[in-house]
Write a structure and sequence with these properties.
The complex is a heterodimer. The radius of gyration of chain A is 19 Å and the shape is globular. Chain A is built from nine helices and ten strands. Chain A has two domains: 143 residues, P-loop containing nucleotide triphosphate hydrolases (Rossmann fold), CATH 3.40.50; 68 residues, no CATH class. Chain B is mostly helical. Chain B has one domain. Chain B contains nine helices and no strands. In chain B, helix 4 packs antiparallel against helix 9 and helix 6 crosses helix 7. The radius of gyration of chain B is 21 Å and the shape is elongated. The two termini of chain B are 33 Å apart. In chain B, 43% of the residues are buried. Classes of the chains: A alpha/beta, B mainly alpha. At the A-B interface, helix 2, strand 6 and helix 3 of A face helix 5 of B. The complex binds adenosine-5'-triphosphate (ATP) and magnesium ion. Magnesium ion binds next to helix 1 of chain A. The site of magnesium ion (MG) has 5 residues of chain A, from helix 1.
Chain lengths: 254, 246
């Protein structure tokens, strides 16, 4: 469980996050949704400590990450896995080396054990026969999947994904969503996903945090979102006629 | 104002660079890789430039002292001392700032803008230490060798060109090369190259590490890195000459 309390963050007098509090539960895919530029990436990077927050507190299963000494922070980091917006694979390493890298850095495994874990993770994300390729030689969807494999290599307790679907076709997006959701449930990890993809919201939104202009605007799950009367949220989610229709159908079903 | 801002961030980065690496074996491997990619790949250009410059300096010295009262050994000596004192140390440093420096900025800079550096940090790895320290060690290590290589091939260049165009005989040239040799000149220049190596690795690393934006910004950061490194090399040359040469 990750709990954030009254988080503020600004850059050179530009307030990006304003008093955000939320709880992200274990074994669930927690979504942060919002318009482009609303501060999703900044919030995610603040949660993992890539940005220092100005005010507030971030707790990982009760452990105060914000005021942790660097050594303890570093230790906690090894329980985190993160998938960046562009994948952020290491260009100079092959697919396999990318996934093995965290194992090389932080474990004392033998090379056979490492290979086993690498194969397991790559299998998990359905990457086959690409072990020796470089990131520049694989497709965007594959990059995202390799990035997920790398993020779960050390069996993290917390998984963060920044727009895992951006730049992917709808079908591949669904595959990635399903993958993230399944990993979350199977490994009982706390997963936070940034997205503005409504398909993801409807498919895997166990717990949804909607931010608008850097402020918390609404929280709930994918069922509750259909019945919301929060105007800003409605404008964001149901901007598209298609989604209005889907909503009406779903409400009818219920 | 701007200078102090950058200097502050530069030293803050260095403080993170000089920390204990995570895994020593991986770190050692990284250093060898950098020596190969930054050092061995520079040997060719150092040899070519040095042969030409050695030849040119020899001709210049020879033609500028076309005076029967000046001893001919001055030609070899002039080439030797020019190479040792300034060309193979300082000018080579400036050239390497262009080659190695821009390479370092663009490599680290593109890792920055594609969030690869964030990826390292999120894993709990000190990215400054992991990426920059092997480069600094590698470049500081190879610079004295490049210096010696440059002096050697510069002298060869003189030996090839001088007699070929009839400016000096091979015997006179070689006598000159050995005449009145001051070992301290070499010590002095090797000390300089150690400083230059540090500048050539660390300043471009700083510019790469702090890029914000995309590919365009990486490009302009490379240019700024090379210009800044060049200026700092000249400043250090001045200071070190004043300190070590009095
Ligand atoms: N390092 C930074 N320095 C200054 N301002 C920043 C920085 N990072 C982000 N911002 C600003 O913070 C705001 C939120 O940016 P953020 O990247 O979090 O948006 P986002 O919700 O992730 O958008 P997208 O969906 O397009 O990725 C933007 O206005 C951006 O300009
Ligand atoms: Mg974003």
């Amino acid at each position: 469980m990750i709990e954030i309390k009254n988080v503020y963050k600004s850059f050179e007098n530009k307030d990006v996050l304003k008093d955000i509090s939320a709880i992200f539960l274990e074994g669930q895919t927690n979504l942060i949704i919002g318009r482009s530029g609303s501060g999703k990436t900044v919030l995610l990077k603040s949660i993992v400590g890539l940005h220092e927050i100005d005010r507030g507190q971030i707790l990982y299963d009760g452990r105060d990450f914000t005021h942790m000494p660097p050594k303890a922070r570093k230790k906690l980091r090894q329980e985190m896995g993160m998938v960046f917006q562009g994948g952020a694979l290491f260009d100079s390493m092959t697919v396999e080396e990318n996934v093995r890298f965290p194992l090389d850095m932080f474990t004392e495994m033998s090379s056979a054990e490492k290979q086993k874990q690498v194969d397991f993770c790559l299998e998990r994300v359905n990457i086959v026969d690409a072990n020796k390729l470089y990131p520049s030689e694989i497709s965007g969807g594959m990059k995202k999947r390799v990035a997920i494999a790398r993020a779960i290599a050390l069996n993290p307790k917390y998984l963060f994904c920044d727009e895992p679907n951006s730049g992917l076709d709808p079908e591949t997006s669904l595959v990635i969503d399903a993958l993230i959701h399944q990993i979350t449930v199977d490994l009982k990890i706390t997963t936070i996903v940034n997205t503005h993809d409504m398909n993801s919201v409807m498919e895997i939104g166990d717990n949804i945090v909607f931010i608008s202009d850097g402020a918390l605007c609404w929280t709930g799950n994918r069922h509750e979102i259909l019945h919301t009367d929060n105007q800003t949220l409605k404008e964001f989610v149901f901007a598209n006629k298609q989604y209005q229709k889907i909503r009406d159908e779903k409400i009818d079903e219920e | 104002m701007n200078f102090f801002y950058h200097a502050g961030r530069y030293f803050a980065m260095l403080a993170r660079v000089f920390q204990k690496p995570e895994k020593h074996r991986i770190f050692a491997l990284q250093i060898f890789k950098e020596i190969e990619s930054l050092g061995l790949n520079s040997v060719g250009i150092v040899v070519i430039i040095s042969v030409f410059m050695g030849g040119i300096i020899t001709l210049q010295v020879a033609y500028n002292m076309a005076n029967p009262f000046l001893p001919v050994y001055l030609i070899g000596l002039g080439n030797r001392d020019t190479l040792i004192l300034e060309f193979s140390s300082t000018i080579m440093g400036l050239i390497m700032a262009g080659k190695i420096g821009s390479n370092i900025t663009s490599e680290i800079g593109s890792m920055k803008v594609t969030e690869q550096i964030d990826s390292l940090e999120i894993m709990g790895i000190n990215s400054a230490n992991h990426l920059v320290l092997p480069k600094i060690i590698a470049v500081v290590f190879i610079f004295p060798f490049l210096f010696i290589l440059s002096v050697f091939f510069g002298l060869i260049g003189g030996l090839m060109v001088g007699p070929a165009v009839g400016a000096v005989t091979a015997t006179d040239y070689l006598n000159g090369v050995q005449y009145g040799f001051t070992p301290y000149y070499v010590t002095f220049s090797i000390i300089k190259t150690l400083f230059f190596g540090f500048l050539v690795a660390s300043i471009p690393a700083y510019f790469g590490y702090h890029v914000e934006g995309g590919a365009f910004e990486v490009g302009s950061a490379s240019t700024r890195a090379v210009v800044t490194t060049n200026i700092m090399i000249l400043v250090f040359d001045l200071i070190l000459t004043q300190i070590l040469f009095r």
